[in-house]
Amino acid sequence: MASKAARRRFRKAERLRALREARRASPWKRRGERFRTALGVVVAFAFGVVLTGYAGLMLMGALGLSGTPGELHVDSCGVVRPYNNKPVTECHGQLLSTTGRLTDPDAMIQADARIGSTIAVRDQPYLGLETLGPRAIVGWAALVLTGLLVLAVGVVMTLAASGRDTSSTIHTRAVLRLSAATAAGGLLYGLTVLYEHLF
User: Fold this and answer.
1) Rounded distance between C-alpha atoms, residue 130 and residue 128, angstroms
2) How far apart are the C-alpha atoms of 65 and 14, rounded to whole Å?
């Protein structure tokens, strides 16, 4: 019994000592931790807002809710490497309005299209041409969910930095649900791309 009581006293003393050391921690260290947390929150919110807004605008175009509709008659396609060195397929051709009027004799779009085919597009202000169809809709919807997920993570980081317990809050559950929805959207997008390549 004496040994068990001594071990309990020892563990309690260790906890008290660790608590005192944490309280005596350098104020510069605490400020550094607060700065890193605040920086992470700002980056999460900024990235989430930009990604959600951009992907939302492109999703509206893919759904036909914004931009000017038209058709691109594909004359040529080729793989290029832009500034980020990631290979993409660029297709060029004549852009026609829905009335058949030629609006651009050499329009360009990044899309996997066959030479000689005609694809439905939307001309988005300041953003250029965007393809329509299931692949574009699913892809941009998945990016919207990703942006919302980043925003939710930023909210949880803010709550954690303020000292609140986030282990069982509604925000944490929202993060988990958005994570599942984003994963499902990514999987659906992959299946859509595979279907288009096969058929």
Assistant:
1) 7
2) 64
CA–CA separation, 74 and 79 (whole Å): 14
Q: Which residue has the tokens 């000592």?
A: 17
Residue type, 65: L
Closest CA to 121 of 65, 69, 161: 69
Sequence-distant (≥ 6) Cβ neighbours of residue 103 within 8 angstroms: 70, 95, 96, 97, 123
SS3 73: strand
Residues 44 and 51: their CA atoms lie apart, in Å, by: 10
Burial of 15 (0-12, 13-18, 19+ CB in 10 A): exposed
Place of tokens 């994570």: 179
Token pair listed for 62: 């893919």
137-164 pLDDT, tens digit per residue, is 888 888 888 888 888 888 877 777 666 6
Sequence-separated (6 or more) residues with CB below 8 Å from residue 143? 51, 55, 58, 59
pTM for the full predicted model? 0.64
- The length of the chain, given as a count of residues: 199
C-alpha 41/C-alpha 157 separation (Å) is 6
What is the distance between the alpha carbons of residues 7 and 58, in angstroms, rounded to a whole number? 64
Taking the CA atoms of the chain, what radius of gyration do you get in angstroms? 26
pLDDT number for residue 177 = 78
